[in-house]
Every structure is written in structure tokens, then in C-alpha cells.
Design goal:
This protein has 5 helices and 5 strands, in the order ββαββααβαα. With 216 residues, the protein is mainly alpha-helical. The protein has one domain (39-176, 184-197). Strands 3-4-5 form a 3-stranded antiparallel beta sheet. Strands 1-2 form a two-stranded antiparallel sheet. The chain starts with a strand and ends with a helix.
Length: 216
């Protein structure tokens, strides 16, 4: 743009950045709002999924206690699934029976780690993975704290058995176990495919080499 000076000469308005200035610092409000909006949606998905898994786990365990206690296993899908009530002092899928006091500590560590990692969360797939893991960990931690025989040594309610009514084909589990394992599998897949929690894709080595050559 040009403006007319008092003497009639044209004077250019100096609105362009000075040579060597950092133009990346000039970010529009729309550009600033975009990452914030993505982060908000990712956190909402994480919290919503965590709450859904936790509530569903608590409800299904209470139903199992109300309707499966002192009765024969309930056969479903032609024997592919059985509903049978049992109490587990170990970890997911009855792993580590006899080390009950250790698992609440592990669960608290997992919950704390996810809460800290969520501060940079901007990826929807990672929000799903972390929500499943957090919901599953909180579901079983609730049993450890509030169920018999005591605080932090409570036994987890399990009631789903596949292909055998007594868990001989596969350990008896619950909804929290399923969510936890599915979340871990999804997290591993996201790591292997280069998906980061902040939503920034990781460049493959070939792509990095090509970009370096182009810069040269």
C-alpha cells in the first residue's frame, strides 16, 4: 500500500516483516484455536469413554452378583460363551493369583500415567486407546478397594467364560479386562504405525532422507 505525503510524494506503508524476522510467531486466532479444539474433543472422548467403560463394568458386575450367584453357568451362543460367577484375586484373566496387594499399586500407576499423558493428547485414536485402558483399570481398581476381603486386597468379580463353563479353555474375565486388553492392543498398533498422542505423524526414514535431499 502507498499513501500521499504532505509534499505530494508517495510513501510506501512498511507492513511487511523485516528481513530475518520470525514469521512463524505471527499466528492467527483461527490457527491458535484449531489445536485447542482438537485437544478438547480428544479429552472429551477420553473422559466419556472412560466413564462409559467404568459404569458398564460396575453395572455388569452387579448384575452378575445378583443373578449368577448359587446357580449353574448360563450357556450362550451354543456354548461359545458361558456366564459363570467367580472372584479373582489376581490380575486380568486371573493372572498372578496370590499377589493381590500388588495390583492396586499397578492400577494407580497406570491411572496416574494416563492422566499425565493426556495433557498433550490431540489424537482421537489415542483417546480411544487411553480411554479403554483407563476405564478398565478403574473398573478393577474399584473392586480392589471396595470388595471383600478388604481395602486394596478385594477380589475382582469375573463372570465371562469362553468355550468352557469353568474357564479351562480361557481364563474367566469381565468387561474391564476386555476394555483394558483392547486398549493396550490399540496403543501398540498406534505406536507401530507412527501415530503420536499429540496428533503429529512420525516421518518414515525414507521420507526424512528425501526431504533432506530436497533442502540441499
Amino acid at each position: 500500500m502507498s499513501s500521499m505525503a504532505d509534499g505530494g510524494d508517495l510513501v510506501a506503508d512498511d507492513q511487511s516483516p523485516a528481513p530475518g524476522a520470525d514469521v512463524s510467531a505471527a499466528v492467527s486466532p483461527v490457527q491458535e484455536a484449531a489445536p485447542t479444539g482438537v485437544r478438547g474433543r480428544a479429552l472429551a472422548l477420553l473422559i466419556g469413554l472412560t466413564f462409559t467403560v467404568l459404569v458398564a463394568d460396575v453395572i455388569t458386575k452387579q448384575l452378575a452378583l445378583s443373578y449368577l450367584a448359587d446357580r449353574e453357568p448360563l450357556r450362550l451362543l451354543g456354548g461359545a460363551v458361558y456366564l459363570t460367577l467367580t472372584r479373582n484375586s489376581g490380575a486380568a484373566f486371573s493372572i498372578g493369583v496370590g499377589y493381590t496387594a500388588i495390583f492396586p499399586v499397578i492400577a494407580v500407576f497406570v491411572v496416574t500415567a494416563i492422566v499425565l499423558l493426556a495433557r498433550r493428547l490431540r489424537s482421537m485414536p489415542w483417546a480411544i486407546a487411553m480411554g479403554l485402558i483407563l476405564g478398565g483399570a478403574l473398573g478393577n481398581l474399584t473392586d480392589r478397594v471396595f470388595r471383600a476381603p478388604g481395602v486394596f486386597v478385594g477380589h475382582v468379580v469375573d463372570f465371562i467364560s469362553v468355550f468352557d463353563e469353568a474357564g479351562r479353555a480361557f481364563p474367566i474375565f469381565n468387561l474391564a479386562d476386555s476394555a483394558l486388553v483392547c486398549g493396550v492392543i490399540l496403543a501398540v498398533l498406534l505406536e507401530l504405525t507412527g501415530r503420536r498422542r499429540d496428533g503429529v505423524p512420525v516421518k518414515a526414514p525414507d521420507a526424512v532422507r528425501h526431504s533432506d535431499r530436497g533442502a540441499d
